[in-house]
Amino acid sequence: MNELSVPRPNSLDAFWMPFSDNKYFKGTPRMLARAEGMHYYTPEGREILDGTAGLWCCNAGHGRVEIVQAIQKQAAIMDFAPTFQLGHPIAFEAASRIAEITPEGVDRVFFTNSGSESADTALKIALAYHKARGESSRVRLIGRERGYHGVGFGGMSVGGIGPNRKQFGALLPYVDHLPHTHLPAKNAFAKGEPQHGAELADALENLVALHGAETIAAVMVEPVAGSTGVLVPPVGYLKRLRELCDKHGILLIFDEVITGFGRLGTNFGAERLGVTPDIMTMAKGLTNAAVPMGAVAVKNGVYDTIVNGMPAGIEFFHGYTYSGHPLAAAAAIATLELHKTEDLPGRARAMEPYWEDAMHSLKSAPNVIDIRNFGLIGGIELSSRPGKPGARAMDVFRRCFDKGVLVRVTADIVALSPPLIVENAHVDRLVGTLDEAIRAEAA
Fold it and tell me: What's the pLDDT band for 311 if we cut at 50, 70, 90?
């Protein structure tokens, strides 16, 4: 058991909490103090079943001793080393381990510290690639409505979640968006990939006609849009998008921050969906969230074009102080070893039918207007209270926590993504508690 003496904070004032209702929380705090396996524990010792893998990230469960020991060992050997014009072996080993499980030919890895940094890095790589090949006019970046690519100005500009953007005024220029793929009139309560909507990818042709293919550098999408409320791609949609990008010389970027490392029952969403991007971003499950780390994997040709297309010296003027941080690299290696030896993707795939049935058992609960699932992801959409969008789901979230279950909400959608070590009994408790909470908040 991971015992740690955690004193109660004597003040909640100093910490400005991210993506939080600070005023509400500091009046009614809900605290987590310890984690192990499938559970968190409050400072009072109350058990909380984790239905969200933290924030989509603790795929191997909490407190894995193999990861803890790897971090401890590395901290004693070398706490930090720069990777600007220098290297340390463990960063190269971590990159090699990642390249072993990325799609074939996507073998070059650039380290970051988060999904947000990975998104901005991927966009910069796309721009640098086109410049290196003599097409400097390709500066336009295409995202998708309801997409989430972190909170850097690049990822936020290409992203398409309104509240994340509207507070900050003008963002990057030369950005446009594809329509989202949510078609509730045709696809409500679909199990897995919905059947309708592949034609929505053809909107890229409209953007090409509007802006000119020679101005477009890249299209960035999530294989499954997570933070917006679990939008699963329609059958054939991503394959069509791949074809159009190839047709017009546009790079395709997959944001695999959520869908990577077993979440969809495969190493990455690209594998499950049968589409290989030119660039893919990752974070979260890379280190099981034990140490912050992100990465961008690119096709070998993209790397070669940038590196070989520049004269001697620095080829790509970008990076972070903590790129390939030794402790993060150690955590990544240990996590990827668990990923392989315990076959976490296989566990997720084996659990998927039970998970799917459990998700759709909530269809009869009051105010449930849609349910979406793919891999070990679930989204339960609730009707909004008149004039109070998001209030119903937030009340469900709080009620579930108070009953010992952690879920996540975005607008009036409850999003679920348990650790991949989840078992049937955990699913039953998660869904049972959620069902009770939804019924209790029917008014």
Answer: confident
